[in-house]
TrEMBL record:
Source superkingdom: Bacteria
Pfam families, alphabetized: FliD_C, FliD_N
Family in the record: Belongs to the FliD family.
Annotated InterPro entries: FliD, FliD_C, FliD_N
Places the protein is found: Secreted; Bacterial flagellum
Described purpose of this protein according to its UniProt entry: Required for morphogenesis and for the elongation of the flagellar filament by facilitating polymerization of the flagellin monomers at the tip of growing filament. Forms a capping structure, which prevents flagellin subunits (transported through the central channel of the flagellum) from leaking out without polymerization at the distal end.
PANTHER family per UniProt: FLAGELLAR CAP/ASSEMBLY PROTEIN FLID, FLAGELLAR HOOK-ASSOCIATED PROTEIN 2
Stated name of the protein: Flagellar hook-associated protein 2
Length: 524
């Protein structure tokens, strides 16, 4: 019976196999042969049990590494998302244009804060057409319909031939639904054109998926000398915008999203009055200091959770009086006692771990190290009002906002420097010294995860071990020894049973001779 799993829940006592053997001992001698042999074997099993405990400790240690790797990986993903300008840099907008739903405004990292006015004369529209009477479409002698559909987007034209049968028994609604499906199937690969038949209105509606005056289509009847059945052309959006200095600009766009002054503006409806004339509507954009501060607070919480978890793990001492239980030991204990014992046995397996200790030290170091290229009054996190708790308040090295007013001032009045402090990326790809805080943490997490995976294996090895990892190689060696020891133990136990069988046979012979002698003497 070979050991082929590193999952302790799959462990099988190598001596359970023998309980299925029919061995009847002690018939002649009266000895409890099984108990005697199991007592002898308990001494022989000492080496195997030590190997099993070593294997179990390595499996538990690997799981601890995986738990730490999971926490670091989650923090790495969080940092990656936060350092994106769209997540780190937040703006707020207000004014009639926004509040009344005429536009939706999102500020980018370079948004020009201020007051604006916008006048939307028309939105960009899709090319569309409605066919009110499908009976104008010609059928050939075989009741076949053949249409040529051309879709033009800019300088590119796509031509599709639509062929289907209009059976004499099919109603107009049935044919209309089939025609809409045929058009959709023809353009399914690019999705450039969509058709829909409304059976209530008895109308076929065709529309392009893109907007703008550079989008058009035609539908022609091939059976009727390419007579045009339908056509449509999109329109451009037409917008006027005034900046804070009342400078007016006219913008035409093939889409209903424009990018101007560092803002992404989505046009929702035209700013028309009751007479149908376009009017200016105002809006303003400014840094959302409250949201940015909350993001920093969330970052601090995530950082503190991680350093606390790692610190507790690498400072948790091991109690060597608690070793993994063998199956024989577990059989003599209650489930609750087993659980408590194993909880104690699992502690301290990463005590003083060099990988995690180094990661923690680097996190603390690079948190406060100056960021090059940032003004000296905001090139460290402490200049933004963030400090570390004293050792007596937090041995883990947690951080907190010591001066929120200072943090808010940095965001409101030195925003570019504040953003660079956290999100900048240096030119030197081999060093993280020139990076901002979030980029440093991201790189440190990546490097640490690689070291953990080299040591304990990749995370996708869930039910077994990574044979290329350091722990995996140790486990392979131990498992090989366990398999060899199992074979040796089986041979030893077989030898004991053979010896006791011989003893039983000798005693049985002696008993037979004794009985014969007794009969001889009693016969005189």
């Amino acid at each position: 019976m070979n050991v082929n799993s590193t999952n302790s829940t799959n462990y099988t006592n190598p001596y359970d196999m023998y309980k299925y053997y029919t061995r009847i001992g002690g018939l002649a001698s009266g000895l409890d042969t099984d108990s005697i042999i199991q007592g002898l074997m308990s001494v022989e099993k000492t080496k195997y049990n030590k190997l099993y405990q070593q294997k179990q400790l390595l499996e538990w240690q690997r799981q601890d590494y995986m738990d730490m790797a999971s926490a670091i990986s989650s923090f790495k993903d969080y940092v990656f998302n936060l350092k994106l300008s769209s997540n780190f840099v937040k703006y707020k907008t207000s004014g009639e244009a926004v509040d009344s739903g005429y536009v939706s405004v999102t500020g980018t990292a370079n948004a020009l804060e201020g007051n604006y006015q916008i006048k939307i004369e028309q939105l960009a529209t899709q090319a569309n057409a409605v066919v009110n009477d499908l009976t104008v479409i010609t059928k050939d002698d075989q009741n076949n319909v053949k249409l040529k559909v051309e879709l033009t987007i800019g300088s590119s034209t796509v031509t599709k031939t639509i062929e289907l049968t209009w059976n004499p028994g099919d109603s107009t609604s049935t044919f209309g639904a089939n025609l809409a499906k045929s058009i959709n199937d023809a353009f399914s690969s690019d999705g450039g054109l969509k058709a829909y038949y409304d059976s209530t209105l008895n109308k076929l509606i065709i529309a392009s998926q893109k907007t703008g005056s550079n989008v058009s289509f035609t539908v022609k009847d091939v059976n009727n000398n390419y007579a045009q059945i339908a056509s449509g052309t999109g329109t451009d959006a037409r917008i006027y915008i005034k900046d804070s200095f009342n400078n007016e600009s006219l913008i035409t766009s093939t889409t209903n999203t424009i990018n101007v002054y560092g803002m992404s503006i989505t046009l929702n409806k035209a700013t028309l009055d009751v007479q149908g004339s376009a009017q200016y509507k105002s809006f303003s954009i400014s840094k959302d200091v409250d949201t940015i501060v909350n993001n920093i607070k969330d970052f601090i919480n995530k950082y503190n959770e991680l350093v606390s978890k790692i610190y507790n793990k690498i400072t948790e001492k091991r109690n060597r009086d608690y070793l993994p239980l063998t199956e024989e030991q577990k059989s003599q204990m209650k489930d609750t006692d087993i659980q408590k014992w194993e909880e104690a046995a699992k502690k301290g397996l990463l005590y003083g771990d060099s990988i995690l200790s180094s990661f923690l030290d680097n996190m603390r170091n690079y948190l406060y190290k100056q960021v090059p290229g940032v003004p000296s009054n905001l090139d460290t996190i402490s200049e933004a009002g963030i400090e570390t708790y004293s050792y007596f308040e937090s041995k883990e090295g947690k951080i907190y906002i010591k001066d929120e007013a200072k943090l808010r001032d940095a965001i409101a009045n030195n925003f570019d420097a504040f953003v660079k402090l956290f999100t900048s990326s240096g030119d030197d790809t081999k060093s993280i010294d020139d990076d901002g805080i979030l980029q440093r943490f991201y790189s440190l997490a990546n490097d640490t995860l690689k070291k953990i995976y080299d040591k304990a294996g990749k995370p996708y090895f869930t039910n077994t071990y990574d044979p290329n990892s350091s722990i995996g190689k140790q486990l392979r060696g131990i498992i090989d020894q366990m398999n060899a020891e199992q074979e040796r133990l089986q041979k030893v136990e077989d030898r004991y049973y053979r010896q006791f069988t011989q003893l039983e046979q000798l005693i049985a012979q002696m008993n037979t001779q004794s009985s014969w002698l007794s009969q001889q003497f009693s016969g005189r």
